[in-house]
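Hi V.,

You were right to ask for the full record rather than a summary. Here it is.
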Amino acid sequence: MTATSLNELICRMFLGGDTLFPIEETTQLLEDGICDSLGLVQLAAEIEKRTPGIKIRDQEITHENFGTPGAILGFLATKTK
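Predicted structure:
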């Protein structure tokens, strides 16, 4: 998954498809009110669907792994090694 595809997914799922919303690598998904903890679980499930071979365990959906788009991409990089 690329940064662009992740940002588009976040916009589609939580921002009504508003791709003009400024999502950066360091945007705080929970603190900035983009989504809530259930939203992170839904995002993880959607990432699993779109990324063959990736399985995200519930205990991996943490602020450290899913707090920002950059954290998500870093986490996914560890899953594909």
